[in-house]
Structure formats: structure tokens, C-alpha cells
Model the fold of this input.
Amino acid sequence: MWVSTVIALSVGLAVANGQVTDPVTSDVNINCGACKGLFDELDYLISKVPQYAKIDLGNSRMDSKGKMEQKLKSYARSEVHLTELLEDVCVEMRNYSGFTEELADGTNRTVYHRFQNRPEEKGALKLQHFGWSVHTQDRLRLACDAISATLDEELMEAYMSETEVAFKKKACKYYCDKAKMGYMLNAWDNLDLDGNPLAADDSEYDENGRVDAKLLRIKNQKELDEKKREKKAEAKAEKKRKKDERKKKKAEAKLQAEEATRDALADETDPVKEEL
Done:
């Protein structure tokens, strides 16, 4: 965590009432994108831990029957696991990209998203509006490390007490409001970038706005099934097109043959041609 701490100190961050109050980097857009990316990655990694995974808190005691009772806690939200996650989670910013799109009203909208597939996702990468840039990834990593280091203790407490939903919204709202990019956080309220509701089976976010590995797998399977149906429909349409083309050529050939037969019969009955 020492790298994150050095970065945080170098940009002079502060926390007040669970909210970052000083800038992370000079780019307000990057700060917003990095904040959302940080919490999405944490939510995803926590969701991958099976429910049966427990950790011994080390304060076993003897029950009334003389047997030792172990006090176990979910490993997913344990301090040990969260500390491990925060050591490396910002490395995932290398799998993010940013792009700016022009909207119907002529204004521009900047979006940062993960383009690299996770293990649960099969198929092509998310390269629509792809704006891959090492410079952008480096800045996202810098901002992510700084936010992680700054919110370290409060962030872990929020996840351990399962109050991280409100915590992350408050923390990232500060950055995204400054960047006028509130739409970046829409997914945490199960909305798309335009503020329209996301279908339950068309989103990797659960009802609380957490990226969930299981939902990601379901969404990906739906996309794969849809692409399979599209390919099947395209193949069927192509087969029909070729069949219609063959029928058309056959009909044209038949018509030409009939015309040739009529011409031949006409020649045989033409008196001028018979005299010649």
C-alpha cells in the first residue's frame, strides 16, 4: 500500500466526514472515472468470494459442553481480504478506457468504462467508442491509488459493515459533480447513461448498484444467446436469398428458352424466310 500512500501524500488529499474534499488530480473527469472504477472493481472482487468462505477471528471460546467454539466471519468482507484487495485493485485501471461522444443536442459526453472482459465474459471486447490510451490509463491509476489510499480506513469500515453503497455514492458524487458527469454513477441506481431504467437481466449491477460476478455471467450468456440467434437469422436470410436468386435465374432461363422457341417457330412459318 506504500505506493498508494506516497501518491496520496504527493497530491495533498484530505477526508472530511467520509468524503474527499481535495482534488486527486487536476483532471476532474479522470477523478470521476477512477472513483467509479475503484468501487466497481471492489464490488466485483467481493462478489466472487463464495459465501461459505469464512475466516477465524481468533477469539475462540469454550461452550457449555466444554467444546471450543470458533468465531467465524465472512472472508469476503473481512479486514484481511479488503486489505489484500486495496493493495492491487487499482491495477485494473489498465483495463479501462475513456471516450467522448456527441449527443443529439450537440453537447459532448465523456465516459470511462472497462473494455477488457472479465473471466465471466466470453466473446468480443467492448470496443464500441473505444478510446484506448496508455496516458489515460496511467492517470486513472494515479487517481484510483490516491482515492484508495485516502479513503482506506473508512472504505474498509463501510464494506465490513455493509454500508458501502451509501459511502461510495457520497464519495464519488463529489468528484463526478465537479466534472458534471453525474451520469457516470447512474448504473449504481440501475439506470443507463441517459437515466433510463436498466432491465434486470441486462445489467451486471444488482439491486443495490454493486457489480456482481453472477449477474455478469448471466448478462454475458444473454448477449451470447442473442448473437447466436442473430447469426442464425442471418444465415436463414442468406439461405433464402440464395434460394430466391436460384429461382429467379431458373425463371429467367425458362423465359429465355420459351422466347427462343417462339422465335424458332416464327421463323419456320415466315413465308418470306421460306422463299429465301
